[in-house]
Structure formats: structure tokens, C-alpha cells
Amino acid sequence: MTLSTLYKTASLAVIYLSLSACAAISPEKCKTADWYNLGYSDGQSGYKRSRVNDYRQTCAEVNVDVNTKKWQEGYEQGNQVYCTPENGYRIGRAGQTYNGVCLNESFVKNYNKGKRQYDIDEEIKQLEERLYRLKEQYRNETNDDIKREIRHDIRDLEREIDRLRIPQVIYQVVF
Predict the structure, then answer these.
(1) Using CA atoms, how far apart are residues 175 and 164, in angstroms rounded to an integer?
(2) C-beta atoms surrounding 5 within 10 Å
(3) Does residue 7 have a pLDDT over 50?
(4) Which one of 21, 132, 146, 170 counts the least CB within 10 Å of its CB?
(5) First-to-last CA distance in the chain?
(6) How far apart are alpha carbons 5 and 154 in whole angstroms?
(7) How far apart are CA 98 and CA 87, in angstroms?
(8) Separation of alpha carbons 42 and 110, rounded Å
(9) What angle do CA 105, 120, 83 make, to 5 degrees?
(10) Rounded CA separation 81/78 (Å)
(11) pTM of the prediction?
(12) CA separation, residue 28 to residues 51, 54, 152, 157, 170 (Å)
């Protein structure tokens, strides 16, 4: 087997696995699915309502009809659990994607607050990694002019990190 053929085979395998990972349900599970519980789980997980169409398509392959009514009943119940303001903040804070499935404004408001905190944390992590690299560079540098520039960059980064952290402390006290 040539290297080119090996790469093609590996690429096809990755594509296949990626596509199969996207399937909402396997054709075999269509035959025994509890549509209410599946809908509840989808609603509680924040999936879009259109997910039922994926089930219809997959289950049609094995001539199984989706009990859409039961799925929707479960979905609505699960969606109520998902769409609480507290969960909105938790999901945003974890950096998870929100699919626009909640009708209440407080969920979205809290999701955005949590997402802002997540983004700040991620930015701080990136700056801290950069700061670490600069400190390593400073330790290894022998040229005094370059060391002075690095010290200046280190101070700037430390100020930026402090600036990002201060709103977090205030936010946590107020929230």
C-alpha cells in the first residue's frame, strides 16, 4: 500500500467517523426508541427542535415512523429544564454553544454573562501563557537592551491580566 493510498484511506475513515458521530440515532435504535424520553433528553440538552427531522430521516431507512407527538411532548418538558436562568449562566460559563432554543429573556441574559466570563478566562489563560514564555525568554536573554524590552512587555501583560481580573472579582461579589 502506498503512502498516498494510506492517507486516502485514513481520510475516508475520519470523514466516515465524523459523519456517523453527527447521527442523532442509529437506524437500529429507531425500532426500540422511547420517543418521549428521547425528546426530553434533547430538550434538556439544548438541541434545536429540528433534531426530530434527523430522526425521521434516519428511521425512514428502516421503515420506522417517529412518534413526533411523543417526542415533542418530551422535548418541551426537557426544554423547560434547560431554559432556566441558572442553567443559562452555567452553559455560558462553561463555554458551551447556545442554539437559540429558549424563549425566556433571562436565560439569554445569563448565558451572555456566563459566556463573557468564559471569554475573559480564556483570554487570561492566553495572556498567562504568553507571560510565561516571555519570562523564560527573559531568563535566557543576555543582551541588556533586549531584557529591558522584555521586562516592559512583561509589565504590560501583567497589567492587562490584572485589568481583566478586576471585573471578575466585582462581578462575583455582585452576582
Answers:
(1) 17
(2) 9
(3) no
(4) 21
(5) 61
(6) 49
(7) 11
(8) 21
(9) 25
(10) 5
(11) 0.68
(12) 18, 14, 63, 55, 52
Looking at residue 165, its amino acid is R
Measured in degrees and rounded to the nearest 5, phi and psi for residue 49 equal -65, -25
| Beta-carbon count within 10 A of 27 CB | 14
Handedness of CA 118, 120, 122, 125 (dihedral sign): negative
Length in residues, the chain? 175
**Which residues have CB under 8 Å from 2's CB, separation 6+?**
none
d(CA 7, CA 9): 5
Burial class from Cβ neighbours inside 10 Å (0-12, 13-18, 19+) for residue 142 reads exposed
pLDDT tens sequence across 64-102: 999 999 999 999 999 999 999 999 999 999 999 999 999
Residue 68, helix vs strand vs coil: helix
